[in-house]
Amino acid sequence: MSDFIHLEEPGDPTLVMLHGTGGDEIEMLQFGKELSRRTGFLSLRGKEPEGRVNRWFRRFGEGVFDEPNLRMRTEELADYVMEKLPEKKRVAVGFSNGANIAAATLLLRPEAFDAAALLAPMVPLQPDTLPDLGGKPILMICGERDPMVPRMNALALATMFETAGAALELHWHPGGHGFGPAELNVLKAWIARL
After folding, report:
1. Active-site positions?
2. At what angle do helices 151-163 and 97-108 cross, to 10 degrees?
3. Could you tell me if 153 and 172 are in contact, meaning their C-beta atoms sit under 8 angstroms apart?
4. 42: CB partners within 8 A, 6+ apart
5. 38-to-58, 78, 81, 168 alpha-carbon distances in Å
């Protein structure tokens, strides 16, 4: 099994914490503990450095992804979480680049996650065919003024998930590429309902 630098606290369900560009497993574990005291955590570090910052997959520019690398890293992540947490309910919680690798995993290897919360995601790739997401709970939290993710891109991702049969909740906030206390409460409530 390919390994990741990670921090882990056992529990079921387990929140699989996926950082954004420049983040790490330490900050995401702390964030996870803000979200829930009743779950386990598996907080991972992406393996594609960009200069001195951590990422999950390579890109050629802002919003222009290296798709072969993205597909390879998606397969690696899916295999890892399924082998690491074979009997647990696995819930992805990703921000920005972490949300994008989680979205790619839902589209290419949907069996890896039982649910996913995606903060500031965008369409990571176009799969050859959409998977059957069969009512899988997915939360998307998106900013109306996000300079990195145009509204139409976020809506396209939401449409892909809905067409694939996910139980999608799409939450818009008036800000940009981030989230505030109101969005944190939306996320906490969603996790509590799982």
Report:
1. 96, 146, 177
2. 30
3. no
4. 6, 7, 8, 14, 15, 16, 17, 81, 84, 85
5. 34, 24, 19, 23
Residues 6+ apart with CB under 8 A from 22: 53, 54
**For residues 62 and 79, what is the distance between their CA atoms, to the nearest angstrom?**
27
Nearest to 62 by CA among 145, 126, 142, 122: 122
pLDDT of 62 strictly over 90 = no
Cα 3 from chain centre: 19
Q: Residue 165: pLDDT band by 50, 70, 90 thresholds?
A: very high
DSSP category for residue 46: -
The answer to whether 124 and 96 have CB atoms below 8 angstroms apart is no
Each domain of the chain, given as residue ranges in start order, spans 6-193
Single-letter amino acid, residue 136: K
How would residue 148 be classed by pLDDT, with cut points 50, 70 and 90? very high
Mean of the per-residue pLDDT values for the chain?
96
| Domain covering 6-193 in this structure, CATH number | 3.40.50.1820
Task: Note whether 8 and 33 are within 8 A (CB).
Answer: no
Q: Render 162-188 in DSSP notation, one character per residue.
A: HHTT-EEEEEEESSSSS--HHHHHHHH
* 142, 149 Cβ separation under 8 angstroms: yes
pTM of the model as a whole: 0.97
